[in-house]
Amino acid sequence: VQLQASGGGLVQAGGSLRLSCAASGRRFSRSIMGWFRQAPGKEREFVARISWSGGMTYYADSVKGRFTISRDNAKNTVYLQMNSLKPEDTAVYYCVADSRSSYSETYYDYDYWGQGTQVTVSS
Q1: What's the pLDDT at 64?
Q2: Backbone phi and psi for residue 10, each to the nearest 5 degrees, phi listed first
Q3: Predicted pLDDT of residue 26
Q4: CA distances in angstroms from 49 to 55, 80, 120, 122, listed in the order given
Q5: Which of 14, 21, 64, 82 would bridge with 95, disulfide CB 3.0–4.6 Å?
Q6: What b-and-e string marks burial along 97-119, b requiring 16 or more CB atoms within 10 Å of the CB?
Q7: What is the pLDDT of residue 93?
Q8: 19-60 pLDDT, tens per residue?
Q9: Cα angle 84, 87, 108; round to 5
């Protein structure tokens, strides 16, 4: 699976952004997809994941109620809708794939990573 994230940018606090992740490869439709983020000087942090069917989602407490993950298997694309953004959401966001169905929040359980897209939220 190859992943290409896009949609990052600069937004004011309270604003919204939608990240997209275009995937290629036959394993996409059977992979759990997710998003991680990493702020400067901080460890990678799990954000959200979605099952291969889209029927199950899971969020970090820090984004629950503000972010929504979704996928369109026909388009091989995963989305992260981010609303009510806060300055602490500023980070590089990475699209990830778990082809082994680990259903994990740990970064090493995700075997495919995209290149990252910068999200900056100003106060």
Answers
A1: 98
A2: -105, 130
A3: 74
A4: 11, 10, 21, 26
A5: 21
A6: bbbeeeebbebebbebbbebbeb
A7: 98
A8: 999 998 877 778 899 999 999 999 999 999 999 998 999 999
A9: 95
User: Can you tell me the distance from the alpha carbon of 105 to that of 35, in angstroms, rounded to the nearest whole number?
Assistant: 10
Q: Which amino acid is at 54?
A: G
Do you know the residue count of the chain? 123
- Mean pLDDT confidence for 71-80: 94
> The sheet that has 17-24: what strands, in order across it?
2-6, 17-24, 77-82, 67-72
Query: Beta 9-12 vs 117-122: how paired, if at all?
Result: parallel
- Stretch (H or E) spanning 92: strand 91-98
pLDDT for 81-91, tens place per residue?
999 999 999 99
> Count of H helices and E strands in the chain?
0, 11
Residue with tokens 């602490």: 88
Residues 34/47, Cβ–Cβ less than 8 Å? yes
Check if the beta carbon of residue 19 is closer than 8 Å to that of residue 116.
no
Instruction: State the CB neighbour count (10 A cutoff) for residue 54.
Output: 14
Residue 118 pLDDT > 80: yes
